[in-house]
Design brief:
Rossmann fold, six-stranded mixed sheet, alpha/beta, 6 strands
Length: 147
């Protein structure tokens, strides 16, 4: 089992939590981004740099992840593709995305895209707060404990 991270938009604090967990559980952790992501020296942690472009990192994660792998992303279309491959997904806010809830999340995402395309001004997500960080750490620990 490998943990794949959509690292371009992953908050620094989430990356730190992931690195500590990977070392503690000796789980392979791979950050995928279109730029170099500094990682601590560890036999379990590495970074993969992909070329720039729309969804290039997402495509790399989908191509490399296997059934049972965990992907950390807040990108709903990427999450949907990972779930279709029997992978597991946790958002950077600790939301566990599954076959049962991904359809609803895709619908909400598409609706918001339509709103923005029609000129509606929508706000982005709120900054990550302490509760979000704790929820992420709890979801990750729960997942790793089951493995």
């Amino acid at each position: 089992m490998t943990i794949w991270v959509d690292a371009d938009a992953c908050p620094k604090v989430v990356k730190e939590i992931l690195c500590r967990a990977a070392n503690r559980t000796q789980t392979p952790l791979v950050f995928v981004a279109n730029q170099r992501i500094p990682v601590p020296p560890s036999p379990y942690i590495r970074s993969v740099v992909v070329s720039s472009g729309f969804d290039v990192a997402d495509a790399e994660i989908v191509n490399r992840c296997e059934a049972g792998d965990l992907v950390i992303t807040s990108d709903i279309p990427l999450a949907s593709e990972v779930i279709a491959k029997q992978g597991h997904v946790i958002s950077s806010r600790g939301e566990v995305l599954t076959q049962a809830n991904i359809g609803e999340r895709l619908n909400i995402r598409d609706f918001m895209d339509t709103m923005r395309a029609s000129g509606e001004h929508t706000r982005g997500p709120a900054p990550l707060n302490q509760r979000d960080r704790q929820q992420f750490a709890n979801a990750l620990d729960s997942y790793l404990a089951k493995r």
